[in-house]
Amino acid sequence: MTLERRDGRRKFPLSSDRGEQLRLGAVRVQLRQASKAICTDECGAQCCRAPGHFRCDEDELEVLREEAVRLGVRVRVVRLADKWAVDFKNNDGACPFLDRDTSLCRVYAARPQACRDFPTKYEERCVLFRHDT
Q: 31 pairs with which residues across the strands?
């Protein structure tokens, strides 16, 4: 499955802040700009509730450690090749910084670049992708 811009060129990584128009086979896909209204109200922050992890660098990790102490949350950190990863396993498969009641990020201002850039690839379940037939 190749994701393309309207002009036919491949587009990676995606950026939801540009509201890009993409083509997935015969279907046009609009990547909407991420916002609280979309991510929390329409979606319920499903990307933050799905099992997985997010990557961060050393500086981001230090800030997140301070935030974890402030919030009193346990964070499982795993070393990957050139980065660190905050793993969701110790938090029932959800991001430890997600407020499950409001679907808001409790460290939004300090969130790592990986969260700021999401999604970086086509995610069928992500409501940021609007399909036009």
A: 129
